[in-house]
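To the wet lab folks,

You asked to see what we're planning to order before we commit. Fair enough. Below is the target structure as tokens, and below that is the sequence we designed to fit it. If anything looks off to you, flag it before the synthesis order goes out.
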């Protein structure tokens, strides 16, 4: 964000203060976490030492999401998270767009990631903010993010602070804004510019969230996981599909739906695996009596195409296995066709591919 940038200061009504203070219990079954990589698109944020803030924080946010997804799938000792992001690409998102997204999707926590800047290159270190009149839950989240970040990166400790930043004022849930380090300082930038350091920082944010929810710090053992939601860049809907939020239990901010028919109009999830091997493919949908009992997912793998028919009238709001498949390294895909018994709907929400 930076000391020389517009931090979006604003006031806050007493009603909104109450909404933040009373938002949600820590002991939620599957907390919805909104990750907010700052800036993006036409707004590069802070720049320095050959780096742009928007790229640094986006990569960190995506790595943070991946750690939470690994934690969810592992099941051995970690948590279970429903993760949404204000942006997953180099997109321009307004401050109001970020808070509206988190509020309208019922997020339980809001975690904003930034890199700092100052006119003097000597400014350095890590600091984390919560809203000036925020709840004790917001302050606890802020404190734990700061503690884990400063333990992970041996940089100057600038402290935990309060501020009236727009995204802290206008979110309806406990929120924190973390300044990872100064992009304008050479030493700090050496951490911000390193993919492995960013991954470690993302892990520290996961640990902070685990502790905030009363869990022990835990590192998932699973080696790979990726999720393509219907709002992700890797998803392409068929021409006759539309978005909906009418049935609860969807992953992310909405889902795609289409009536069944004897036509070829599949929606497609494109994903990338790091190396050739066997991976588990899972799907998420919302269930209902008007859903197809034979929704045909088509998995393209090294052995060809396999159609897996699932009953979307049941088992909604969770990950359901489509099976284990062998994929070549690089780009692969899963499709959902509408070509099955007419008179029903098929739901295209999210697909997860992970190490079995």
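Sequence we intend to order:
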């Amino acid at each position: 964000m930076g000391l020389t940038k517009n931090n979006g200061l604003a006031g806050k009504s007493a009603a909104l203060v109450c909404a933040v203070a009373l938002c949600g219990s820590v002991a939620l079954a599957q907390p919805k976490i909104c990750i907010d990589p700052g800036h993006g698109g036409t707004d590069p944020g802070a720049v320095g030492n050959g780096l742009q803030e928007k790229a640094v924080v986006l990569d960190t946010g995506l790595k943070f999401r991946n750690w939470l997804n690994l934690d969810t799938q592992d099941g051995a000792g970690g948590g279970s998270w429903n993760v949404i992001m204000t942006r997953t690409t180099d997109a321009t998102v307004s401050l109001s767009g970020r808070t509206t997204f988190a509020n309208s999707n019922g997020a339980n926590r809001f975690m904003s990631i930034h890199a700092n800047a100052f006119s003097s290159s000597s400014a350095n270190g890590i600091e984390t903010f919560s809203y000036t009149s925020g709840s004790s839950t917001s302050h606890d989240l802020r404190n734990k993010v700061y503690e884990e970040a400063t333990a992970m990166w041996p940089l100057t400790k600038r402290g935990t602070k309060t501020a009236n930043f727009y995204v802290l004022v206008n979110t309806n849930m406990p929120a924190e804004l973390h300044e990872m380090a100064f992009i304008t300082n050479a030493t700090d930038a050496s951490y911000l510019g390193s993919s492995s350091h960013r991954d470690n920082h993302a892990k520290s944010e996961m640990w902070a969230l685990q502790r905030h929810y009363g869990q022990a710090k835990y590192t998932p053992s699973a080696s790979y996981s990726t999720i393509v939601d219907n709002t992700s860049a890797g998803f392409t809907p068929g021409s006759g599909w539309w978005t909906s939020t009418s049935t609860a239990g969807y992953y992310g901010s909405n889902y795609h739906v289409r009536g069944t028919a004897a036509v070829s109009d599949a929606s497609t999830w494109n994903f990338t695996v790091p190396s050739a091997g066997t991976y588990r493919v899972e799907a998420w949908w919302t269930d209902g009596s008007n859903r197809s009992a034979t929704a045909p997912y088509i998995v393209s793998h090294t052995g060809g195409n396999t159609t897996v028919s699932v009953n979307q009238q049941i088992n909604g709001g969770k990950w359901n296995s489509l099976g284990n498949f062998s994929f070549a390294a690089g780009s692969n895909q899963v499709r959902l066709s509408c070509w099955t018994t007419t008179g029903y709907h098929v739901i295209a929400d999210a697909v997860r591919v992970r190490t079995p």
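Structural context that might help your review: The CA atoms of residues 138 and 343 lie 47 Å apart. The first strand starts at residue 32 and ends at 37.

Thanks,
Computational group
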